[in-house]
Amino acid sequence: MSTLAPGGPAAAAIADLWWFMLAGAVAIFAGTMALFLMAFRAQARGPASTRLWIMGLGIAFPTTVLVSLLVYGLLVGERLQASAAPDVVEVEAMGRQWEWGFRQVQGDRRGAETVGVLHIPAGRPVDVLVRSEDVIHSFWVPMLAGKMDAIPGKTNRLRLLASRPGRYAGACAEFCGIGHTGNRFFVVAHDPASWARLAQGTS
Amino acid sequence: MTALRRHRALHAIWDRGPGWRGALATVNHTDIGRRFIVTAFVFFCIGGVLAMLIRTQLATPGSAFVGPAIYNQIFTMHGSIMMFLFAIPMIEGLAFYMLPKLLGGRDMAYPRLSAFGYWCYLFGGTILVLALLFGVAPDGGWFMYTPLSSKTYTPGINADIWLIGVTFVEVSAMAAAIEIMVSVLKLRAPGLRIDQMPLFAWYLLVTALMMLIGFPPLILGSILLEIERAFDWPFFDPNRGGDPLLWQHLFWLFGHPEVYIIFLPAAGVVSTVLPVMARSRIVGYGWIIAAILALAILSFGLWVHHMFATGIPHMALGFFSAASALVAIPTGIQIFAWIGTIWAGRPELKLPMLHIFGFFVVFIIGGLTGVMLAMVPFNWQAHDTAFVTAHLHYVLVGGFIFPMLAGAAYWLPHFTGRRPIERLGKAAFWLIFIGFNLTFFMMHMVGLLGQPRRVYSYPEAMGWTWYNLLASFGSFIMAFGFALFALDVAMQVFLGRRSQRNPWRAGTLEWAMLLPPPTYNFASLPRVADHDPLAADPDLATALARGEGYLAEPRHGWRETLAGDMLTGRPEYIVLLPGNSLLPLVMAIMTGGFFLSILGGVYVLAPVFLVAVAACGWRWAWRVGQREDLGAIDAGCDLVLPIHGEAPGSPGYWGSVLAIVADGTLFATLVFGYAYLWTIASGWPPPQLIAATPFAAGLSVIALAAASLAGRRAGAVPATAATRRIALGIGSAAQLAALAALVFEIATAVPPPASHAYAATVMVLFAYAAVHVALALLLMVFAWNRVGAGFVSDRRTAELRVAAMWQDYAAVVTLVVLLVTKVPAMLS
Q: Does the structure show a pLDDT above 60 at A139?
């Protein structure tokens, strides 16, 4: 379930963003606390300079940091959007109290529902159409991507890609009532051969 | 008159009177402030015990300590209690206790309203906590997302208790917001310019403004959800034109400013305590005020960052992401202004400063994780995990609890008149600080490892066990720290040695009085030039006690204080404040009866209690005022001033203006909800629109225009009592006609409200207009009686102006309601 052990490009991009921000945050925290603690050591130096403390450290410094971080965050976010691609697989994830049902989508047709297990091909982009039958849930497979809410009356789209075949744990992330804790599922990413067999079996 | 005789005379006027009756009837701000603080601390302890239960449950995997049903109640109530029953009321208590003392006045602007607010808070909070004891507490999360909290998925009374209890408590928050604003803007000591007032007053002024605008969306949301639950009007039901996301918008439109509403007063405490502890003056006074204002404005533009995973288009999220990150700049200004202030002085690491150190460490970490969460992609991973739980506790404990502990250490000698016992307090600090960081630092990590929020259990295989165990261990260390803090306070209250006046050698006015403070604060009111008057004149307290300031002579048993120009503080009039009264308590009980009859589903009783509340309000307003013109009277120091009833812009007038701002915000949110559903929700356009017939609508508009004209004529100067009564009589008749027309529309033109969110929203819009026309009618009839009883003259027209103001407001909202409902119907 770790967000820091990415199994695909989306989760990897976010993990990179996290490590970058962590490094910056540690540096800023250390610097600010050093200034705070050194103030107790310093002998009285007369009136403090507004230019230094307010305009420099209070305004210019955070503005520079934040604007650059915002640009970085926005670019990562754009890259994670479901952009058009030739080999996209569409699946539907239906949240309900308290299980997830998954169906393959082909145009207007829906495949048979599998409860608690979502089958996808590895190495291909997958669009999950996230929906709900009752209350709000949230579809989350931390090793593959961020989460997307399942809201009754709405269909949300989440782009996933599992780089390697394998099993990835998922959970409902939005509190959905008494069975919320147990509302878990798995994503199984298949290699091409296994995916082809599965497609044959279901159609 | 000697200082002692003056003290006795003033005390006799301002004291609350003996026994139980005195305790129930007191309206004095020191009493009410203390009461808010103590009650909020009791709720904090209850919320803290719930937190302990959460940590006990999560300490080990697969724990069987409580099941999910109880666990859901526990975490819902922990959040709701800490937000609504602890943080906000603690702020109100500190504001009520401190503001008049800090600003050189004798009480808040509306003492009875403070008392009423306290009783509403106590009763509403009690309803919530009793529900917990009976096992029917709210269990849908403190954010109450629909449709989980709708009737289908929460059929029991649990959700109703949240909606009713919290709304009841919010009555007190709205009252406090208005009262704080008017008190800061009008009731300052003579000469205290707004750009010279103590920063704490600035922080509270902006906080109150944010409450005034931030709480109405929540109140509206709660009303709509309760109506949906009670009568099946589908505002949030996607099958009938509603939208569950509308609730989230309304909730977070309140919920995010709420965080700054909690943080700003605490930052105000830091800005007050830190310069005293550092023995210097605050750096960048003007910049800090600009930063507070920027924070207030930005905080209303970033609520969507709680909704990054709801499927809103990425580019739209980018806007809210930027606003959420940029809010760190005004915070940065304050942080570095504080550090610069320490650099400029000779800091001493006394207990209050130690808590400020805790604040710096914890709050800066919370701010940094906040910037991380403002980045949309990272938010998609971290949202609704323990990482966010950790972040929000770093922000709120760092940004509220530690400053409040600093404030407690700093002001306890003021509350109790006793000297602090440093050693115990320092031990308490370290336990809280270490325990807190152990608990919540672990939660960052376990969140990144994938632990969602609000799960009552987890399997061993997840690898979360050690983090949770350490977090739970830390939380018990923290609990010991708070127990030690409570013990420290108790020891100081009961065993502490008497403190001398101004023990910290502070510069602000609250230290210019005996400790503990006398009931009337200042025997005479000072003339003040800046925010640290005691720095310039350390003997000010003695001079004031000797009667060398304004209003030094007690007379007629009046509770007198001064009001001045909002900007310059130039004295304008003497405010005669109302004395002790049981009316606030009775009115709060009747308000409670109204809420309980809705909670119990006994809807026939609700209007009965509403009439009782109106009757209390009538009596409330009737008991103040004068039947003769007094003209300008002596205010001391060669100043003569009118009393407030004879001056333009009395506290009551400004209170009315602010109440309309709050009410107008609620109305604007309602219209926003209507437009939101129309444009965003599925299932629109609705199957049936309101009947397009313009007749009744036109009648109500014409009648309300006539009533507004009549209201204006009644308040004109000069005029005889007879003319005024005729105008008010005509106005009331016109209002009655408008009300009848609106009721006719409701009964005949609006489709059945349970059929579609459109019909439900239109019904609420019409009901809103009708309620305000009825309110304006009540005020005009009241004014008619007041003119008859001689309370109104050419000099005393405030009540007429208030009645006319509400009439104008009713006319405007009715016009808007008719435009937004009838025009689309006519066009289709």
A: yes
Give residue limits of the domains in chain A: 9-79, 89-202
Are A187 and A120 within 8 A, CB to CB?
Answer: yes
Listed in sequence order, the residues at least 6 apart from B320 whose beta carbon sits closer than 8 Å to its beta carbon are B301, B302, B303, B304, B305, B308
Coil, strand or helix: which one is A126? strand
Q: What 3-state DSSP class applies to A152? A: coil
Q: Is A93 in a helix, a strand, or coil? A: strand
Residues of A in contact with B310 (CB under 8 A): 149, 151, 156
- Token representation of residue A79: 């890259």
Q: Which residues contact B537 (CB under 8 A, 6 or more apart)?
A: B543
Query: Using one digit for the tens of pLDDT, what is the confidence trace for B468-501?
Result: 999 999 999 999 999 999 999 999 999 888 888 8
From its phi and psi, is residue B178 left (phi > 0), alpha (psi between -120 and 50) or beta? alpha
Nearest to B217 by CA among B167, B261, B181, B179: B167
Helix (H) or strand (E) holding B330: helix B328-344
Strands (DSSP E) along chain A, which ranges?
Answer: 89-96, 99-106, 109-110, 114-115, 117-121, 126-132, 137-140, 148-150, 156-160, 166-172, 184-190
Q: Which residues contact B757 (CB under 8 A, 6 or more apart)?
A: B233, B234, B235, B237, B240, B241, B242, B243, B677, B681, B683, B686
pLDDT in tens, B166-178: 999 999 999 999 9
ipTM here: 0.97
Residue type for B296, please? Answer: A
10 Å CB burial of residue B565 (0-12, 13-18, 19+) is: middle
Q: Where is B573: in which H helix or E strand?
A: strand B571-577
**Which listed CATH number (3.40.50.10700, 2.60.40.420, 3.40.1440.60, 1.20.810.10) goes with A89-202?**
2.60.40.420
What count of residues does chain B have? 828
Residue-by-residue DSSP string for B150-216: STTT--SSHHHHHHHHHHHHHHHHHHHHHHHHHHHHH-PPTT--GGGS-HHHHHHHHHHHHHHHHHH
* One-letter amino acid for residue A103 of the chain: R
Determine the straight-line distance between the first and last CA of chain B, rounded to whole angstroms: 78
Q: Report the residue from B336, B375, B379 with minimal CB separation from A53.
A: B336
DSSP string, B738-799: HHHHHHHHHHHTSPPTTS-HHHHHHHHHHHHHHHHHHHHHHHHHHHHHHHHTT---SS--HH
In chain B, what are the domains?
Answer: 634-827 (1.20.120.80)
Is B582 within 8 Å of B26 (Cβ atoms)?
Answer: no
Give the model's confidence band at B1: pLDDT under 50 very low, under 70 low, under 90 confident, else very high: confident
Q: In Å, how far is A170's CA from the nearest CA of chain B?
A: 9
CA distance A175 to chain B (A): 6
Do residues A33 and B356 lie in contact, with contact meaning Cβ atoms separated by under 8 Å?
no
Question: Which token pair is B75?
Answer: 């975490």
For β-strands B640-641 and B633-634, DSSP reports them as: antiparallel
Instruction: Output the 3-class SS for B28-82.
Output: CHHHHHHHHHHHHHHHHHHHHHHHHHHHHHHCCCCCCCCCHHHHHHHHHHHHHHH
What is the phi/psi pair of residue A90, to 5°?
A: -105, 135
Provide the token pair at A167: 């099993």
Exposed e or buried b per residue across B240-262, where buried means at least 16 C-beta atoms within 10 angstroms of its C-beta: bbbbbbbbbbbbbbbbbbbbbbb
B596 residue type, one letter: L
CB-CB under 8 Å, B244 with A153: yes
How many angstroms separate the CA of residue B422 from the nearest CA in chain A?
Answer: 19
For residue B571, what is the DSSP state?
E
pLDDT, chain B, mean: 96
pLDDT at residue B362 tops 60: yes
Which pair of structure tokens corresponds to residue B408? 């407690």
Sort out which chain A residues have CB atoms less than 8 A from B328's CB and list them: 62, 66
Longest Cα pair distance anywhere in chain B, in angstroms? 85
